[in-house]
Amino acid sequence: MEDAGLATLRAAAASGDPEALYRLGNALVQRREMEEACAHHARAAAAGHAPAQIEYARMLLYGIGAEPAAGQAVHWLQRAEQAGNAVAAYYLALVAIGGVALPRDEAMNHRLQAAVRAGFPPAMRAAAIHFGRKPHPEDQRLCMRLLHDAAVRGDASCAALLAERLALGEGVPADPSAAARLRAAGVPALPRLAASTPRQMPCEARTLELRDALFAPSPETRSRRPYVAVVDDLLSADECRLLTATAQPALRKSMVNDPRTGENVANPIRTSSEAGIDPVSEDLALRIVQVRLAAAAGVDLANAEQLIVLRYAPGEEYRPHRDYITPRALEEDNPGAGNRTRTICVYLNIPEAGGETEFPMAGIRVAPKPGRALVFDNMIFDDQHPDGQLDPDSLHAGLPVQRGEKWLATLWLRQRRYRRF
């Protein structure tokens, strides 16, 4: 039975009042009655209610309570933006960075700037991390100010990044007491790391140009068959920390796919913990990181599965395995996108000992380093295999961590489009 509060909301919405419809839609989302929630948000959106237009657009983007429709979602976000809503501008920038439903053009920068000026914490987070990638002291000061202001507004990720910078003296003189006060207030500690300044295109100080953040240096080939390459300094320290901070609360035991049943099951071959970054929870900063990872692998983000962040405690490992998908599992996970043609992993910290990635058929090991990406092929494309063939020589292993812990993020890239936007 419905509670009295929901009944009251329904009575108010019966008049067709847009604010009442919006509030009812939000209440139904909390109850996970998504189809009805979507219908009420749609009615409020059609009546010109900007927050409802944003919520309806997000439901259309992710296929929540309705069939996914990125083009319609963009339409409603643009209507809200035209009404002066800076949050809608932020979501349009988030869509555009994917390069599918909107172009990656100058409008992304203007939209992000509008959302920052409005004090929207996810926008402040993306801008802070953008400025934090650049070595100029003015950019570093901007990064610290934005992290602080977003943390004051309750942004947990920015508070975690701010605490690490204060503790280590990044962007400002070290202030361990300020970092300790944040810890005492409940801000979680992150793995300690010192990443190099990421390689990027020359850019002016104090400029917000998102395309600068999408630049990916060329990989250094370590093996041609199987293909294995390394890209150093791809991510900044803030970006490595963002990934760990996002994943920490959602870690669960890693699973492997059973080739007989297609089910994911626990298996001693893989003893790590992991967190998948659900597209619904992706913010702009996370999307930018993933676009750059995909670019470093020479593949568009639209072909990528969801990002996976992994933690290996002492003694944990991933024994020799291959990343391509078995036919049974592929049938159940967007078979039209094809198999995993390429993998890119990025190390987020350095364990005290162990944790290298080994390719036994190539005879190489790659050591973890913050911001270092590892790119390798899972399939062969040549004159004999123009449509691709699974490569058994792509066998690789995450060697046991001997001391400390290892964090890394993995993006599996399909042959064709996997994402909607």
Automatic annotation (TrEMBL):
Signal peptide: none annotated. Residues 303-415 form the Fe2OG dioxygenase domain. Coiled coil: none annotated. Its cofactor is L-ascorbate. Gene3D superfamilies: q2cbj1_9rhob like domain (2.60.120.620), Tetratricopeptide repeat domain (1.25.40.10). Keywords: Dioxygenase, Endoplasmic reticulum, Glycoprotein, Iron, Metal-binding, Oxidoreductase, Vitamin C. One of its GO terms (molecular function) is L-ascorbic acid binding. SMART domains: P4Hc (SM00702), SEL1 (SM00671). InterPro entries: Oxoglu/Fe-dep_dioxygenase_dom, P4HA-like, Pro_4_hyd_alph, Pro_4_hyd_alph_FE2OG_OXY, Sel1-like, TPR-like_helical_dom_sf. It holds the Pfam family 2OG-FeII_Oxy_3. PANTHER family: PROLYL 4-HYDROXYLASE ALPHA SUBUNIT (PTHR10869), TRANSMEMBRANE PROLYL 4-HYDROXYLASE (PTHR10869:SF246). This is 2OG-Fe(II) oxygenase. It comes from Pseudoluteimonas lycopersici.
